[in-house]
Specification:
The chain is built from 13 helices and 13 strands. The protein is of the alpha/beta class. It folds into 2 domains: 141 residues, Glycerate kinase, domain 1 (Rossmann fold, 3-Layer(aba) Sandwich); 221 residues, Alpha-Beta Complex (Glycerate kinase, domain 2). The strands form 3 sheets. The chain has a 6-stranded mixed β-sheet with strand order 3-4-5-6-9-10, sandwiched between helices. Strands 2-1-11-12-13 form a 5-stranded parallel β-sheet, with helices on both faces.
């Protein structure tokens, strides 16, 4: 029997691979000859870097970069040496969590994201997978581009700046100092929003408020982004301002599209492609997936239902395991999950349930009983 395990991390408890290995142990306790394949699972958001690095045999790199408000921060990203691939989350260098209550959207910059990319390029990486959720920025990506050698100049030919507040001052773009290696690089961006760069559904109006953009500056900032987009179009010969996802991360999506020729993809699809999930699921007799908490929102989520959809494409039954299951989780049964099971075996505190050793044991024992049932009826 061929079984594929692709389970999301149990946040604060187990990584995707740790959870997968616990399930594998339960399967092999019953059917030791089973062909078990474990694949890392994430949806492109928080935890994606760690999941892919662990699952693909990579290594983490920790470097000093400029944070969103330019104070130095430690930012980690992953490298997969076999494919010269760097795996990053922009939030490591420009995330909203890094500013706390000190939200200054006109000062916030993506410069540190560019520093991460430049560092990876110097280490030989030419393929990039980058998640762009959770940003503190609204700078249209000019900070990131500046760190890569792009020069955004004002009407006097002087540097305009690297934050959202500088957008209104940009009069020209120079590329003489851009890293030449970027021409060899491929960027795949995990992006699950469809907002354009500007307008009522754009970066500033939809996501600006959570970053501290006050009502009184929305119009000016939105117009500044629009002017930046027009200048970019004149410079590049492209216009991605209305492209789905251009408004992601305060316009960082637009910068990736316009200057780095990136592909924007739904996070789960990007992850599944990166780990060759479909190749693994072809011919599978059973697929295990799951996450820490299964509820009605899981059916509208990305990771678990993404796996279920792919498994159904190839005719494989799907079982989901979860640390907790709440009312409404039955909706998952309408989205490709054939059956789901909570792994808790007794009344316990949350801290006890999330203890890594306990969680592993519970996953193993639950998987073992499921396989015993399958073996008994087949």
């Amino acid at each position: 029997m061929k079984t594929v395990i692709a389970i999301d991390s149990f946040k604060g408890s187990l990584t995707s691979i740790e959870a997968g290995n616990a399930i594998k142990k339960g399967i092999l306790n019953v059917l030791p000859d089973t062909d078990v394949i474990i694949k890392p699972l994430a949806d492109g958001g928080e935890g994606t870097t760690e999941a892919l690095v662990e699952g693909l045999g990579g290594e983490m790199v920790l470097i000093d970069v400029h944070g969103p408000l330019e104070a130095p921060v430690k930012a980690g990203y992953g490298i997969i040496p076999e494919t010269n691939t760097a795996i990053m989350e922009m939030a490591a260098a420009a995330g909203i969590i890094l500013v706390g209550k000190d939200k200054r959207p006109l000062d916030a910059t993506t410069y540190g994201v560019g520093e991460m990319i430049a560092d990876a390029v110097k280490r030989g990486c030419r393929n990039f997978i980058i998640g762009i959720g959770g940003s503190a920025t609204n700078d249209g990506g000019i900070g990131m581009l500046a760190a890569l050698g792009y020069e955004f100049l004002d009407k006097n030919g002087q540097p305009a700046g690297i934050s959202a507040g500088a957008l209104k001052n940009i009069a020209s773009v120079r590329t003489e100092k851009v890293m030449p290696e970027l021409k060899e690089c491929r960027f795949r961006i995990a992006c699950d929003v469809t907002n354009p760069l500007c307008g009522p559904n754009g970066a500033t109006y939809i996501y600006g408020p959570q970053k501290g953009v006050a009502d009184k500056i929305k119009d000016d900032l939105d117009h500044a982004l629009a002017d930046y987009a027009k200048l970019t179009s004149l410079h590049t010969g492209t216009d991605y301002s209305n492209y789905e996802g251009a408004g992601a991360a305060g316009g960082l999506g637009f910068a990736f599209l316009s200057y780095l020729h990136a592909d924007l993809q739904p996070g789960i699809q990007l992850v599944m492609d990166a780990v060759k999930m479909e190749d693994a699921i072809k011919g599978a007799d059973l697929v295990f997936t799951g996450e820490g908490r299964l509820d009605h929102q899981s059916a509208m989520g990305k990771a678990v239902t993404g796996i279920a959809k792919l498994a159904k494409k190839h005719g494989a039954p799907v079982i989901a395991l979860a640390g907790a299951v709440t009312d409404g989780a039955e909706e998952c049964n309408h989205h490709g999950i054939d059956a789901f099971f909570p792994i808790l075996r007794q009344i316990t505190t949350l801290d006890e349930a999330m203890d890594p050793d306990t969680a592993k044991q519970n996953l193993t024992k639950t998987a073992e009983q499921i396989i015993r049932l399958i073996a008994a009826v087949t």
